[in-house]
Amino acid sequence: MYKHFFKRLIDLGVSSLLLLLLGPFLVLFALLIKLETKGPVFFRQERVGKNLTNINVLKLRTMTHKRREVGNQPVIGKTADVTNVGYWLRRFKIDELPQLINVLNGEMSLVGPRPSVRQQLDQMTEHEQKRYLVRPGLTGLAQVSGNIHLPWKERYQFDLKYIENISLQNDLKILGRTFILLFRGEAYFKNRPLNLNTSREAS
């Protein structure tokens, strides 16, 4: 019941409330982005969503506005392409907040496997592609268990573990650790994977 009904209901309620509360801050961040560099405030990127559909994920722009190839390698820390404002937006995951609109639209969920670029599909086994059976998430089990500090294959295993054990308890666990992660950083949880309640325990 939770997976097929209440999870979406919670997504709608929480994303609506957060967008309302955080709206003024998003306007402030948008102004800071415009003051520092030329280019759009938002960055749109095509990602893979539920059932391998294409979705356009929204982010606050954190990098210089120039054409670059999208690859599988994450951008970590302060690089030449990351703006000064962008560094702090990335550090505290503020750049991801516009994805609440994706959640509201039903393209994403608050919790789930992160939406990937389509190029990654070629590197996944058929079993690993089961991560696309559910809506991608704003945060997920892999993200609170090391994320960019883990190899992709290990992240996929966390995604599959989550899908097998979707429950309100586990979503709350992941959201709680996500809040702590904002201050601790992702590296802190590299060797501290979050233990989920199994489907039997959660039922």
Give a brief outline of the structure.
The protein is mainly alpha-helical and 203 residues long. It has 6 helices and 4 strands; from the N terminus they run αββααββααα.
Structure, explained:
- The protein has 203 residues and is mainly alpha-helical.
- The protein has helices at 2-36, 84-91, 99-104, 152-164, 168-184, 199-202, and strands at 42-48, 54-60, 109-111, 137-139.
- It has one domain.
- It is built from 6 helices and 4 strands.
- The strands form 2 sheets. The chain has a two-stranded antiparallel sheet with strand order 1-2. A two-stranded parallel ribbon has the order 3-4.
- Strand 1 (42-48) and strand 2 form a beta hairpin.
- Helix 1 (2-36) packs antiparallel against helix 2 (84-91).
- It is globular and about 50 Å long.
Mean pLDDT over the full residue set: 91
H and E string: HEEHHEEHHH
Give the class from helix and strand content and strand pairing.
Answer: mainly alpha
Distance between the amino and carboxyl termini: 10 Å
- What proportion of the residues is helical, as a percent range? 40-55%
User: How many separate structural domains?
Assistant: 1
The total count of helices amounts to 6
Low-confidence stretches: none
Order of strands across the main sheet: 1-2
* Strand element count: 4
What percentage of the residues does DSSP assign to strands (E)? 5-15%
Alpha carbon gyration radius: 17 Å
Query: What coarse outline follows from CA principal-axis ratios?
Result: globular
For the sheet with most strands, the description reads: 2 strands, antiparallel
